């Protein structure tokens, strides 16, 4: 045991400590700890180191051939031993994050009721709302909580409404916050808001473990969600409340409702927007231009596309000092009805209204049989400098679209961000080839390098939310900010952009490698906390110069501490 190992006073003994994932060390309990905690006869005699345990666990993991079986093994490991679980994944970050998160977690969630073994968070059900506060307090009593991740599971990872299975995405996001953001897992809470489901497969499944009822909507839904949010605000006023995978009709609305009264965050909207902003900040540095100089087409105007538009617009206002109404004119959003323009009338969602284009701009432009103006026509008309895809329409950025865009700008910025890789709007190697290596590229899924005309590999940046949202959350928690402000998010995006390899070599990736995400998110967190202090929203009395050291002390690392038995200690 290292002299620098943390010391914990623990009240658990025997099977109690062996079945606690927070405190269990398995075969790593020392001889003296085994005697103190009544474990000598409960464990085989040899004491293992954590690296030895990781070696054994990795070999067991490799024996599982399919990703879903690997996912199940890792879930079981997390239920047994947090330190071993996080240490193992940290050693194999690039390999195992796709197993514990997207894309494999989507399969696990879709089969949640059939794979169910034990609960993994808090299940708040509409039918039991009268006891919500009692249930909330029962599970959180005695706990200090920094992070609460919740989902109503209406729009899970591209597979839609998954009912109570949404606890899986809340738990997976919490894991990423710990793994990459350094958040203490004992201070996080995963929640599913079970308001029913409209998934016929689940409603007709006799093994479905959630509330078998049609999804509640309208005023009843709002009251249920508000009751939960007010409990968070009442008992954990300095926590970060992360909304995840809410449907398009609720995501932006709930964020807007609560963001001025609590530190709330929606990764689908703000995380996607923030990492895309960072990517574009580095891209415009390469081109020697500004954010406000660009003409943006966003193809796919759901939660992610709208979140990107809002984040980019707000950055143009904040960084380039452009009035909001003028900044809105830089954007052309395209949804299933084509270009978002005035004549769409009631087909325009509330959040899209500030980006509506006037009809008189488009006189004489080609339309389809429904009168919609599609992507190619918009590209021909405005000659965009930035083309962003969040549509999940694989291949939508055709050769004609990409070549037409490249005719109008020296270094076209093309970001096909849809996940998974088979739904990407254009394969980056094709976009690279069609633009003769001129395009600046980033994708939402990992892709191999593309060949430049000079034979050099062009690394395709992965515009992955996990490069920024754990750091945004860590910074908010570190500073005890009562809100997650736009300026805090922009500060985090700026710090991420400053770490771009492309700033040293324009033919390098626009964002840091995902393998460096823990270090990157630490920097993002420091920038966010510094901004919170500067703007007066922090709940701490530190100076900006103290933030980095405070952040280092706050980071949770998967290492075994030294245990002392104390009947009044932790349990």
UniProtKB/TrEMBL annotation:
PROSITE patterns: MALIC_ENZYMES. A divalent metal cation binds at residues 244-245, 268. Divalent metal cations. Prefers magnesium or manganese. Keywords: Metal-binding, NAD, Oxidoreductase. (S)-malate binds at residues 419, 464. Its cofactor is Mg(2+); Mn(2+). Residues 269-533 form the Malic enzyme NAD-binding domain. Residues 78-259 form the Malic enzyme N-terminal domain. GO terms for cellular component: cytosol; mitochondrion. Pfam families: malic, Malic_M. The active site is at 101 (proton donor), 173 (proton acceptor). It comes from the Eukaryota. GO terms for molecular function: malate dehydrogenase (decarboxylating) (NAD+) activity; metal ion binding; NAD binding. The keyword Amino-acid biosynthesis does not apply. Coiled coil: none annotated. GO terms for biological process: malate metabolic process. Gene3D superfamilies: Malic enzyme, N-terminal domain, NAD(P)-binding Rossmann-like Domain. Belongs to the malic enzymes family. This is Malic enzyme. It comes from Collybia nuda.
